[in-house]
Amino acid sequence: LSYAGYLYYPSLFKETPNQVFEKMVGNVLNSKSFEYEIQVKADIEGENILSSLGSQSSKANTTEKYSVEALGSGSYDFSDLENQKFTQTLTLLGTTADSDVQYSIAIDTKMARKILYAKVNQIKFPNLTFDPNIILGKWIEADLGEKTSDSNSAGSLLTGGGTLTLAQERQIRDALQTSSILTVAEVIGEEKVGTIDTYHYRLDWDKENIKAFVYTVTKILGLEPGAEKVIRFEKELAIVNLTSPEIWIGKEDYLPHKI
Questions:
Q1: 153, 121, 152: which is closest to 138 by C-alpha?
Q2: How far is CA 134 from the centre of its chain?
Q3: Section 128-132 average pLDDT
């Protein structure tokens, strides 16, 4: 009878798009390691980069439009939560829309035993106020196990200035898996990514669920951010424009193959 029901009513047994997406999230969060490649292109309007680098340019403290491209690849290993490892190569390329001034920076990063290492391989910014050869090709390290705190930043709503326990990491991962901060808004189709058959979806952010997830994390961390930080966080979240991403999820492995 069950087999006959499946033959006549297959839609009753088929997973919904949101069930597929949630299964993918669970698989990603439970992965012990993964490799990735990225290529991101964006148009950005913001503070002139020259002012951020201490330039004396007349354009400092002004806004400017940029075309930005990020190219990168890397690998992560979470098999030992006490010794998470990753390696990453990232190149950022930028061009101003008004003057066609080009910017670029290429960085290698890696982490092991909570020590972050970074090496700048290339840097090109006009009117730099320091000699880039001071840092080019040299590994710089930072101990992520040391306690840091920035009580004035909006991000401090989620940071207590210390490191997470394994129990807290697991609780946050479980909360993220059930948070529904992203849901399937549109089924675009079924496509191949390379040789992999995938479901192609457009996703939407749910700001109410984002807030709920953030507040859940603050409880897990035992934090009391205070009314001022909560108000600032909610105001920032309300005005930010979150672009709807598209995702291609493998039909058999339920893993993301393209975003």
A1: 121
A2: 30
A3: 81
